[in-house]
Amino acid sequence: MTIDTLKSLTPDYAKDIKLNLSTLANDESLTDQQKWGCLLACAMNTGNATVIKEIEEEALDNLSEEALNAAKSAASIMAMNNIYYRFTHIATNKEYTTLPAKLRMNVIGNPGVDRADFELWSLAVSALNGCGMCIDAHEATLVKEGVSKDQIQTAVRIAAVINAVAVAISAE
User: Could you give the percent of the chain with pLDDT greater than 90?
Assistant: First the structure.
């Protein structure tokens, strides 16, 4: 089991991270597709090859090909959008918020999976990247789609723990 591999690679000083990883891997508040898509999108966002490999290996058993591609799409599109929209939000000159982005984002409108799942993954990656504007937009969409606050919090907890695993493994 690859979650076990990640736990074994996580140093002992990060015991809480190991415990949190186990808890989230067994979480039942999200569907398997929501959970594994979130784990994969967040792993990709860390850029840590070991974390990506181990999560993707297990995600292959839990996601359809469409969901696997959609999770990867969420990670890649948010890598772009979070930078752009964080800039427009943080920049003192608010004129940038009135300009069209001129960036292709077609996957957001047609991700190939349930919209709520894609939005959940996008929210988790946006939390990792610290884009408040994107966090607010995705959270609002999720609420409209009927996703509970507990489910939204779980996705962000996954983002936090996967990031911590990547940091601990990279440090060793």
Answer: 98
